[in-house]
Amino acid sequence: MWLSKARAGCSLWLSSPEKDSFEGWHDGYMRLEDPVKHRRLIELDKRARKVIIEDTLEVGEEHDVELFFHCHEACSVDAIPGGYLITRNGTSVRLALPVVDNSDSAVHQGSLAPMLGWVSRAFDSRRPAPTIAWRARIAQRAVLRSEILISS
Predict the structure, then answer these.
(1) Phi and psi at residue 122, in whole multiples of 5°?
(2) Would you give per-residue pLDDT tens digits along the chain (152 residues)?
(3) Sheet of strand 83-88, all strands in order from the earlier edge strand to the far edge
(4) Closest residue by Cα to residue 58 from 74, 40, 75, 76
(5) Please, are residues 131 and 106 in contact by the beta-carbon 8 Å criterion?
(6) Residue 98: is the preceding peptide bond cis (ω within 30°)?
(7) Which CATH number describes the domain made up of 8-150?
(8) 2: left (phi over 0), alpha (psi -120 to 50) or beta
(9) Positive or negative: CA dihedral 7, 2, 104, 141
(10) C-alpha neighbours within 13 Å on the C-beta side of residue 23
């Protein structure tokens, strides 16, 4: 993947007093034996104080897919039904993960196998930080919807 650059672009940008929407795409997975088209829609619902993230994946065969949510190193992350509660300095957000058969998720913090759950704020420096990893196997077009809701 590092030998050739993926192309990326913006296919939607809208802003209103109620909602901001952005959709982007890239062709980085088109190099696979079974190419995958990926688009991501991010919407900020200002009144509901919610961010909606929809990843649309167009596939021809089965693929293992992963989504990662990287948190600040001072956050606490607790599992709740359907997702996680992420808290820092008295403010909490609820992360609702996509609903897909046989999906699973885990929190990694300072993990070496797999190498997840780190942040680097300076050269040659790393600190453990929670990373939520969601995984599933898909066999057809999928829309993976995640929601971030500010709860306090």
Answers:
(1) -160, 160
(2) 456 788 999 999 999 999 999 999 999 898 888 889 999 999 999 999 999 999 999 999 999 999 999 999 999 999 999 999 999 999 999 999 999 999 999 999 999 999 999 999 999 999 999 999 999 999 999 999 999 998 75
(3) 8-15, 19-26, 37-45, 50-58, 142-150, 91-96, 83-88, 76-80
(4) 40
(5) no
(6) no
(7) 2.70.98.70
(8) alpha
(9) positive
(10) 9
Tokens standing for 96? 């609702």
Residue 16 burial (C-beta neighbours within 10 Å; 0-12, 13-18, 19+): exposed
| CB count in 10 Å sphere of residue 146 | 19
Residue that the structure tokens 């990662």 belong to: 68
Q: Residue 13 is which amino acid?
A: W
- Residues forming beta bridges with residue 119, ordered by sequence position: 127
Separation of alpha carbons 61 and 81, rounded Å: 30
Q: Is 138:59 a contact under the CB 8 Å cutoff?
A: yes
Q: In the chain, what are the domain boundaries? A: 8-150
Tokens found for residue 21: 């929407």
